[in-house]
Write a structure and sequence with these properties.
- The chain has 17 helices and 15 strands.
- It is α+β, with helices and mostly antiparallel strands and 549 residues long.
- Among the domains are: 157 residues, no CATH class; 160 residues, no CATH class.
- Belongs to the DONSON family.
- Keywords: Developmental protein, Nucleus.
Amino acid sequence: AAAAVPGYSPGFKKPPAMLRLKRKRQRRSEPPTAAAAAPSPCGAAPRPPPARRNPFSCLDNAPRAAELRERGRRELRAAGGPLAAPFWQVGGRFLNYRPGSFCDLHLPVLIPNIPSSPRNEFPADWSIKTRLLFMSSQPFTWAEHLKAQEEAQGFAQHCRATETNLPQCVQEPKMSTELRCAFQQSLIYWLHPSLPWLQLFPRIGAERKIAGKASPWSQDEALQQVLMSEWSVSFTSLYNLLKAKLCPYFYVCTYQFTVLFRAAGLAGSDVITAVISPTTRGLREAMRSEGIEFSLPLVEESRIRKRKNSEMNMETEVVHSPEVGKSTEDGEEPPPTDDDEESFSWLEEMGVQDKVKKPDAISIKLRKEKNEVQMDHKPESVALVKGTNTFTLLNFLINCKSLVAATGPQAGLPPTLLSPIAFRGATMQTLKARSINAKARAHLSYKDIFSLEIIGPVMPHSLHSLTMLLKSAQGGAFSAVLYSHEPTAVFNIGLDDASTALNKEAVCKDPSKCGLHPKTLDQLSQFSTLGKSSIRFLEMKDYVYTWKS
């Protein structure tokens, strides 16, 4: 039966006869071109056929190079920037470059939001940075090839919490031993556990980087218990240091969420705070069952905003509605506006309570549960724990079985603890730093661009310490592109509790106690102003900061 079907090709190994016949007819109907009719000269190789156009490209939508340059100029004019500005002043998306490479500044760039007003200090950014890229017109040779003695001195200064105060402008940065030692000091952080063959930060979405690496604990329950026991000791040690104001803050990085513990006196709070992001409904229910009191700041902020908008709309209706205006003059109150779905008294006042079907208690509960599930794994799910509840949270995390992955590449691996100071079971680590030289096109010439790249878990104190060093070493003129670990950007939310007043006595002013520079500590003690965003671009001109988030 299959052979009787015309044009049928068994197994689809050959094209059907119908398609072959159609192609032959098309070739015969095409007129022969002059190039095809003319014989090729003797001994000459035939010319290759013209390159095929990409069938998925659209000629109408394909911008040309001139159009791209003109679009870039229009964007720069709209942003108020000069046409020939160096790319470290333009901001936006930074082009990854290598030594000796050339960056075309005339291509369109992504202009960020409007920069902030110039200030002497930038706000504290509690997000963890994965990469910093500092750029300047002056070289970063002072950060290259540290001597063994300078490296050892930097380690000693960190362990002893030595305060380094540099002049406003270092005349010869490369020859300044004090600057180079302070640079080494600013790169140090503490980590637990320490497994050199594994990248332990970030942990969220790290399955691909950890997959295939040796993990003898994944199938050994006894070894998993030993690792978790040591981790619990280190975690408890960190919290005790935090409670004694000997540690300013630390991070707990799990494969699902990250927790930021902050000491009393930081971020405008006079009590210990813990911020968790992202969370899920299951995690929040487990915390409630353990008696942990917490709030959802972004959810509460959204409710307040909606309530204010509804009140404004009601006021507008009161002004424009004659019936409502009449009842108001008679002393009667307008229909109440309540965000609670269980209150439907306003339907009775309108006389439509029998015409509108009211949802039952089960429907209301299901709707609330749906709203809770929809915000899972999103910034809006950030949870805030305060005061003595942070100790309950500590015990909850130690005993939480879902804290460690049961399957996958991260199975049995305890969460990562990151701290600016030493704690029990911690290992000293250093951020990776390298200087890069490149050239950027400006009109018809090229300019030398110098950059300093920092890679690793850059915590808030390291960012501030590095900017203080660059302020003196680069003559008060540099810029930086900051790459944040996105789940931690929401840590910049403000503590909106009016009763949480900053107690100046709670801030540890002695650097020998908490291990931070006094200026860094002063910055971290301020109220958070970035909201759920983080600083993406930072620039200093004439010793004044501007930033974009």
